[in-house]
Amino acid sequence: MFTKKMGAALLSVMMMTSLTACSPKPKVKTTESADQSIDLTNFKVTIPQKTYVYDGKPKTPKVTVTSGDNDALKEGTDYRVTYSNNTKVGTADITIKGLKNYKGTLHQTFTIVKSLKKIDETALKNILNEMIVFDSGDSGSSTKVVEAASDLLTYVAQINLAKADKKALTKAVTSWYTGLTKEQQATLDGNKDSILDTADGIIAHYKDYSDSLEDAGVLDQTKETLKVKHLKDDWKALKKLLEKVK
């Protein structure tokens, strides 16, 4: 027999079940793991040389990416390399993009010049501009001096500047200098002697500069340049003109 007590008990159970079903489920907190990727911004990019002679083929210099502790990353695993404007005469660009545990993008440039006696003013100006992209008092300026000196030597050797048209060379250097702003000319005046002296020193006493060349990322480039027999004459042709501009 269904009694009042049994009905009350059944009603109580039904009410409890209803309340439980309607109660909101507690939210489960989720936490996103912190980004552990390492930014490439503070890493150093080096290539064997920064000047190449045009031959109609794409230039793809080997890229090395190192940390402040000189630990080298692995291409294809830690970063991906792409090249652009790397076939024709002019300035080519290398893009280094981080992969997996590394993020961010780095860029490096190099120059492609004509292997001709005729002076390519654009290529020459690109090389000479390396003398004015830093101030002698800046942090790391000594490394920039070594890099600029090496690139100048590589440029003059590859195009055999000693046999170039002297009038065209003089015109190109003069045009470059007069096209600079007063501020850029002042920067050149502050950097020029150090760069020219360093280039002389590299030719005469290469081993004394090997550590500095390695720090600047141009050691391999300089080694190849110093093998050129007419390097001294090529450098003399440009140095003479640079000493005169002021």
TrEMBL record:
UniProt keyword annotations, A-Z: Signal
Superkingdom as given in the UniProt entry: Bacteria
Leader peptide range in chain numbering: 1-21
Name of protein: Lipoprotein
Organism per entry: Intestinibaculum porci
